[in-house]
Every structure is written in structure tokens, then in C-alpha cells.
TrEMBL record:
Species per Swiss-Prot/TrEMBL record: Brassica carinata
GO cellular component: plasma membrane
Intracellular or extracellular location(s): Membrane
Residue ranges crossing the lipid bilayer per the database entry: 206-228, 261-279, 333-359, 365-384
Protein name: Cation-transporting P-type ATPase C-terminal domain-containing protein
The entry's keywords: Magnesium, Membrane, Metal-binding, Transmembrane, Transmembrane helix
A Pfam cross-reference name: Cation_ATPase_C
InterPro entries to which the protein is assigned, alphabetical: ATPase_P-typ_cation-transptr_C, ATPase_P-typ_cyto_dom_N, ATPase_P-typ_TM_dom_sf, HAD-like_sf, HAD_sf
GO molecular function, one term: P-type calcium transporter activity
Keyword Iron-sulfur: no
Main location (coarse class): membrane
Domain Cation-transporting P-type ATPase C-terminal: 233-378
Amino acid sequence: MANKGLRCAALAYRTYPEEDIHRNEAFPYIPESNLVLLAIIGIKDSCRPGIRQAIQQCRNAGVKMCMVTGDDLLTAKAIATECGILRATSDETADTAILAKDFASMSASTKRKIAENIVVMGRSSPDENLLLIEALSKKGHVVAATGKGIRDAPSLRQADVSLAMGIGGTSIIKECSDIIVLDDSFDSILTVGNFQSLHQLILSFFLIKLLSISICSFYGLIFSLILLEHGPWEPPSDNLMRRPPLIKGEPFITKLMWAKFFLQVAYQVTALLVLHFYGESILKLENKSLDCAKIVKNTVIFNSFVFCQVFNEFECRTSYQGNIFSGILKNHLFFGTIIISVILQVIVIECLGIFISAVRLDWKQWLISIGIGFFSQVAGRFPFQPFPYLRN
């Protein structure tokens, strides 16, 4: 009966003089010998609907289930097999069923070695539960444990994630648990795992996006510092004295500056979007695999973005001069920081690309990136003279 997952109970009787029963005692002694057996009852503890599929989903996700129970080992093995926790066709090294007292009697090293293979542990007390969790934790596993009674509290505290049963669990267990399963259903535990995986995936994508934004912000910070550093030391041009004085109340950022700003943004966004949607054909990546072509295209987009900022520094420096390279050697700080920025960009792309999901570029792809950056000067040098409304 135990092999079939039945919990056994025996019904028996015997005659006993009533006067011999000590009724005044809280627990009167009743003899347990010389009984006449009436029946042996097998109680079936059926698995809940859908539990087998839920356990299979956990196994597919890399989560190994372990059934730790106070039932007899034979009964526990039968129930575990029915639920799919213990696979009937598995070998002994894959899934192990063991008595709790046998596990407790092992040495610490043996416990750690065998703990990974245990899927059923019968006749277990909360103390043996704690030993199993400790052995798994020392092996580096992330352990989640469930509990109901107050004696399960040490095991729940030792586990990385503790789950308390909302219906059958005591208030103390609920207080020391990380998650409370309100309906005591295994499906709810599976839902928790699904949300955990979803949140982990979302967080991973968020960190990748945040890293990309941080890199762009890092370059923005570098180029902002370049402007702050070279600005006070830039020698004034004679053309500046030809500018009319600033009228009181006139905005600090003029209409011409706003026009150049929007034109520069429009150019950079358009150029990078064209690379994004038509980069494979422009860069002649049709013969490469889809993943490889995507990485190369994204690297060129990033590289072009950086060089747009590099050449935009020249535009900011020479807003009122004709030649963007005029007097560049007179400002050693500006010239040096630009050279260092370009060298750092080459090192990042050619040597450190693995950290930002970039690959090395050939000379043609470098020329395309530099060319896109250089032509941002065309947008900055747009002739606004025919538009008197935009003049300073």
C-alpha cells in the first residue's frame, strides 16, 4: 500500500476493564497489546490537478524540486513519482530518495556531495530539513523553501527565498518569510518564479540600455568639459568686434543659435536613422549573418555619433569664423583634448568593444563614420543670410 502512495491506518480493539482506566489523568493509559485487528485503511493523497505539468515547467526552467516530508519513504517515493518529482526511469545518480536519518548521519562533505541529487527525503524532521538546505547553500545553490509550522522557521531563515503558506501557515512563519502564498497552491509558486524570470530579463535589458545611455552621457560629459576647458583660453577673433552689442533684454541664446541647434539635431538624427534602417546595404553587409551585420551596423552608428560630437566641438568653437581649423594650434588644450578623445574612441572600438557589444571596424567603415561626423559641419554652416529673421 505504501508503494502505491497510500497512507496507512490500522483499526483494532480489545476488551479492557473500565475500572482500570485512570480517568483523572490528562492522558489515561490505554494498552496497545493483545489487540484484535479490524481493518487496515489506505488513504490516498492525490496530486492536485496540473501539478505534474507545473513541476515539468520548473524542471525546464532549471529549477530542481525536492520533496521533504515526514511520511514513510515508500509513500513519499510513490507520491513524488506520481507528481513528476521523482522520475521512474532515472538512474540512481540523477535522482535520489533517502531517509532523513541516513542523511543526518553522513559527514559534512558527503552531505554536500549527495545533496544535489536528493529529490525525496522521507521521515524528515525540521532539523533534517535545515541540514539539507545548509548543504545545498554551501554548494552554491540558490535555495527556496516552503513551510507551515513554527518548527520550520530555522529552515526558512536559512533559505535564500522563503515561502509561507497563507492558509495553513502560522503567523510567525508568515512574518519570517519573504513570500506568502495566499492560496497554498503550487501554481502560485510557479507564478512567482515566472515573474522573477520576467523581472530579471527586464532588468537585464534595462541595464544594457542604461549602459548604452551612460556611455553616450560619458562622451557628452567629455565634450562638455572640452568646451568648458578651452573656452576661456580661446584667443578672441577680430570678427567678434564686428558683432553688434547685446541689447538689454535680448535672449542669451539667439534665434540663429536655435536654428543651428535644430538643424544640427535634424542632421544627426536623420543620418543615424538612415544607418539604422539601411545600414546593411550602405555598409555592404548582406553577405554576413544577421547577428554579425547588426553588431557591425550598431558599432558604426555609435562611432558616427561620437564623431558628430567631435566635429560639433569645432562648430561650437568657430561659430563666428569661416574656417573651422583657423587658429586651432594656438589653443593647445583644445587640440590636445580632441586628439585624446579620438584616440580613446579608437581604443574603445578596436580593443574594448566586447564590453559595449561592439566589434572592430575596417578602414572603409571608419571613413564612413568620420565622414558622417564631418558633414555635420555642412549643417552647421548652412547659409542663414537670406533669412533676416534669424540673423543675430
